[in-house]
Amino acid sequence: MELELTETQSLIQKTTREFVDRAILPVAAELDRSERFPKEILAELAKLGLMGVNLPVSLGGAEAGVVAYSLAMMEVARGCASTAVTMAVTNMVGEVIAKFGTEEQRSRYVPRLTSGEYVAGSFALSEPEAGSDPGGMRTTARQDGDSWVIDGQKQWITSGSHAGVFVVWARTGDVAAGTKAISCFLVEGGTPGLKVGKKEDKMGLRASDTVSLTFEGVRVPASALLGQLNGGFKIAMMALDGGRIGIASQALGIAGAALDEAVAYAKDRKQFGQPISAFQGIQWPLADSKTELDAARLLTLRAAWLKESGQPFSKEAAMAKVYASEAAGRVVDRCLQVHGGYGFVKEFPVERHYRDVRVTRIYEGTSEIQRVVIARSVLR
Ligand code: COS
After folding, report:
1. Which of 55, 160, 193, 339 has a Cα-to-Cα distance from 170 of 20 to 30 A?
2. Is 248 exposed, middle or buried (0-12, 13-18, 19+ CB in 10 A)?
3. Measured in angstroms, how far is the CA atom of residue 132 from the centroid of ligand 1?
4. Which residues, 6+ apart, have CB-to-CB distance to 101 below 8 Å?
């Protein structure tokens, strides 16, 4: 058993860390306050290879693997969780096209995502009435001559106002066929009939773009079908398995930042004539937080390593996601408490972390869905 990082993994971690310290941390509070989509930072991430960490060099990726991806995600989330989720979804879209796409689809879209020519990619699965149960989706795609025509609505679409390419799921058969009549399509940003709805006014991740989409007779060529006809549901499930490693890593990055800040604050802040770090009432929550984050990190890196080495990792990704996101929530809450009243105002970043971390228990599968995935595997 090896717990040391490889040279490549250390290099990606170090490069990302330096970039985050220099270019993201100084602007993170302003991005949150102004809800500004960080285009220039995303372009820099692409230059560093971070929009395709686990993609082959031939497609413009860094070819550094899933563990390196997880480490990079932790670092970016430490700086700005909004930037991190935009990066996570773009990596996921690149991977899904690289894995399931034809040669033409791969070469047309993946280099544009990895190079930053497309500022982001989007993953359009959820709908207003189909969140935890994507098998209940209502968006349809019907064949019309040489094209597919897509009609319907999507919800909670990350980077939907900016994406160069959308991976879109739609029903290609009878509702009664459930998950067996869903297919996946690649739709380019700006395609006629694809309308971007209002930007959500979110509690956290305020610099990320979350919108609804309406498809009104969106016509795409036959070549836009990704993977097998009616084989789309499994593509979504496999992509989400990988995506959950990204979100576990994001949660770890946010909570790790909060813990560093709480430690610094506790050493600096004096009450009753001594730094509050001298009190056990402050020490124990810091100790518990460090322990839980290390446990979550090991679960997350194990899931990443399993994916990287081509082994089944669905259950392990769900375990990492549910544990890391819930531990991160507890940690950020404790870290805010250590800050006392200063944690409740925007002067200290812990207030932003508290808002940003909450969604990690919800998106890319709620905690409850992760437990469904784990339980099914345990009981199989
Ligand atoms: N990898 C590959 N295939 C998978 C899979 C996975 N991780 N999970 C399920 N499948 C396959 C199943 O094997 C099944 O195939 P067969 O029909 O050939 O047997 C098919 O997909 C349907 O699976 P299942 O019957 O388990 O589907 P359910 O509708 O019961 O859904 C859950 C299963 C709950 C796990 C799924 O709906 C889910 O992940 N929901 C959460 C969605 C989500 O994360 N949304 C967030 C969107 S991004 S913000």
Report:
1. 55
2. buried
3. 10
4. 109, 110, 186, 226
Backbone angles phi, psi at 280, to 5 degrees: -60, -30
* pLDDT at residue 2 is higher than 90: no
Residue nearest to atom 26 of ligand 1 (CA): 373
Q: What is the pLDDT of residues 50-62, one digit of tens each?
A: 999 999 999 999 9
Q: What is the rounded CA–CA span in Å between residue 322 and residue 354?
A: 17
**Which atom of ligand 1 is closest in space to residue 240's alpha carbon?**
44
Atom of ligand 1 nearest to the CA of 123: 48
Which CATH superfamily groups domain 233-379?
Butyryl-CoA Dehydrogenase, subunit A, domain 3 (1.20.140.10)
- The pLDDT mean for the chain works out to 98
Burial of 92 by CB count in 10 Å (0-12 exposed, 13-18 middle, 19+ buried)?
Answer: buried
**Ligand 1 atom at shortest distance from the alpha carbon of 238:** 1
Say yes or no: CB of residue 126 within 6 Å of ligand 1: yes
Per-residue pLDDT, 1: 86
Q: Which CATH superfamily is domain 122-230 in?
A: Butyryl-CoA Dehydrogenase, subunit A, domain 2 (2.40.110.10)
Round to whole Å and give the CA distance between 362 and 164.
25
d(CA 196, CA 218): 13
- Residue 168 Ramachandran class (φ > 0 left, ψ -120 to 50 alpha, else beta): beta
Whether 371 is in the pocket of ligand 1, judged by its Cβ within 6 Å, is no
Q: Is the CB of 375 under 6 A from ligand 1?
A: no
241 C-beta closer than 6 A to ligand 1: yes
Predicted confidence (pLDDT) per residue in 150-202, tens digit = 999 999 999 999 999 999 999 999 989 999 999 999 999 999 999 999 999 99
User: Mean pLDDT over residues 220-225, rounded?
Assistant: 98
pLDDT (tens digit per residue) in 293-339: 999 999 999 999 999 999 999 999 999 999 999 999 999 999 999 99
Ranges of each domain in the chain = 7-118, 122-230, 233-379
| 32 close to 254: Cβ distance less than 8 angstroms | no
CA of 234 to the centre of ligand 1 (A): 7
Q: Supply the pTM of this predicted model.
A: 0.98
CB of 236 shorter than 6 A to ligand 1? no
